[in-house]
């Protein structure tokens, strides 16, 4: 495995990007290689904005705003579109990856691409004739084997076509789909799953929980549907569907939850259960104390009311990463709607705090990245950039004891405050 491939795998794992890491790294590599002199050309760009790094050393840790100064806002937006990332998220993640990526590209450039010169020295006499003879026989055997393979393949194809057999084509997979709704005590389930075993697993779990008369609908078997990676967790969480009015809609790796008819406490309890079970997915419709507080704000909230409600929500990130967890996007969508309803002259600080694990310098940098990520997400939802100021505090302002996980969880937080 090459250094670059290993870098992509590490990015996918440690930043929680999954398969999206490949497109992001590829876009960055293409951009660097498109510059005059490649990595050295990028170094000159760092120098031009006062962010140069000495000799062949690793560039300093970057913030999204610094990357924008190096690359340019318009070019950054183009790169983000190519990688299929929101511009703000791309800037934050790319700024974190770029120093390590430059290291990898320079190491690969220094790696020997050809055998040592001694191995390429010409030889003379009988040895040369022996090598040439062996090489010639090898080439002839390869040519004969290739011709036989081509002939065999041609005959096989002709035979299949003449017999009327269709030529096989790769079939495009479709997302697995499943919807489950509690309609006054009866679970209505419908969807498309790839195999009979999947269909039976869901149906049997629901019948075991709610009885034969408590389940209706139909699950179709669709061989083109992809693997439902959430199926086992759904089966284990079947009891959560006992709430009338609750519905779950799975579509590929996304889950949408409807629970408008549920009492407030039930919404929070159900959301907690689903967040634990499906937090790795893109989940919308979940509730927590923050969502409740935001829903109770007046049409045009006062700045103090707005901040108090925003600070009851919990924005979570991947471990030691600026990447938002899937359910964090939904929380920030609701936060953006509340901010947009407030006086547009209000300016808010988006403060990010970490626990004390790791070095203070690392935590300070991580907190600034996370603050910028939240601002980028709010901006993507329509909040004017002039209303938001990101600031990372690292581990400097704990609100709980960092010796315990419960305390560290409380310390890892986004905290809004009024600047004017």
Map the helices and strands.
Elements: H1 3-14, H2 20-34, H3 38-48, H4 64-71, H5 73-83, H6 87-110, H7 126-162, E1 177-183, E2 186-193, H8 196-210, E3 215-221, H9 231-236, E4 247-251, E5 254-258, H10 264-278, E6 282-284, H11 289-295, H12 303-310, H13 326-341, E7 348-353, H14 360-380, E8 388-394, H15 405-411, E9 413-418
Parallel strand pairs: 2-3, 5-6, 7-8
Antiparallel strand pairs: 1-2, 1-4, 4-5, 7-9
Keyword list:
six-stranded mixed β-sheet; three-stranded mixed β-sheet; 9 strands; alpha/beta; 15 helices; hypothetical protein tt1634; globular; 60s Ribosomal Protein L30, Chain: A; 3 domains; 420 residues; Arc Repressor Mutant, subunit A
Compact summary:
With 420 residues, the chain is an alpha/beta fold.
Question: How does this model look, in words?
Answer:
The chain has helices at residues 3-14, 20-34, 38-48, 64-71, 73-83, 87-110, 126-162, 196-210, 231-236, 264-278, 289-295, 303-310, 326-341, 360-380, 405-411; strands at 177-183, 186-193, 215-221, 247-251, 254-258, 282-284, 348-353, 388-394, 413-418. It is globular and about 70 Å long. It has 3 domains: 3-108, Orthogonal Bundle (Arc Repressor Mutant, subunit A); 177-284, hypothetical protein tt1634; 289-418, 2-Layer Sandwich (60s Ribosomal Protein L30, Chain: A). The strands form 2 sheets. Strands 3-2-1-4-5-6 form a 6-stranded mixed beta sheet. The chain is α/β, with parallel strands linked by helices and 420 residues long. The two termini are 53 Å apart. It has 15 helices and 9 strands.
